[in-house]
């Protein structure tokens, strides 16, 4: 890897991103439904793989609906789009459909799904913007790293989604043993699937997995993957995620072609010194930040953001799901207040 070449490509990618996406950067975050994965062979890097044998009743590892909808409301309030609806495997098509309907109705916008191979024939496509495939890695060891996620089935599902007029995306985790030569494989896959977006994550080594003591991806390597995608696909939405211990990666990734930042835990970091640092990293690139990670008045609903990445639209859902939302209104509001209180306590302690 030629570092000077990587930096030069990053400069070109930054200009291309500005041309196609303007001068803004926004936050996104996956909305998780629970912490149980019913795959017989979970992914080798995943936290859920360490919890699988500990969870005796999978239903108890699911989040309550009021908690999910409260988070969806607060994310919209602070200008964070949902990256996708996700969280393990093991939900029926009907369950996925009902949850997606209620989240879309609550947020007044369509949603992406990242819940495995989706039975699109039994999903209300009127609330779905797109489908994301958990490709995770294009390295030669993919089958052993992600044994429960056959790539051919993911590809078929994404192609079907495309045929139905939906947008598509994939997730890639860097730090799983990929090589520089694998970049070409990724570029070929993006072209084959005609993807609308790609989410990169840097590996966050989990205790109890084979990656526990492995190093994650370096900043320059991460930049190379991001800029390679941007240079070859100017119109694709590139979402990059790093953990709180890698905040300095943010500005180099934006300079390499990323236009959305993801991954950060919302309520445990909002308003803290780390959140202020994250915003500073973004603004240091000269970009305008849509959404907030620090304004408690916005989170509490005392102030409204002037500019967000949300575009509201009319969402039609079943009367049954509409009734569920109405019946949960009090619990949703209580959960919203508890999340805000959690943030205030964290800020005070910080």
Automatic annotation (TrEMBL):
Instruction: State one molecular function term (GO).
Output: 4 iron, 4 sulfur cluster binding
Domain of life according to the entry: Archaea
Q: Is RNA-binding there in the keyword field?
A: no
Biological processes annotated in GO: biotin biosynthetic process
Keywords on record: 4Fe-4S, Iron, Iron-sulfur, Metal-binding, S-adenosyl-L-methionine
Q: Which SMART domains match?
A: BATS (SM00876), Elp3 (SM00729)
Fetch the InterPro entries from UniProt: Aldolase_TIM, BATS_dom, Biotin_synth/BioAB, Elp3/MiaA/NifB-like_rSAM, rSAM, rSAM_sf
Q: Where is the Radical SAM core domain?
A: 20-235
Cofactors needed by this protein, per the record, are: [2Fe-2S] cluster; [4Fe-4S] cluster
Q: Which Pfam families match?
A: Radical_SAM
Return the protein name.
Radical SAM domain protein
Where are its TM segments located? none
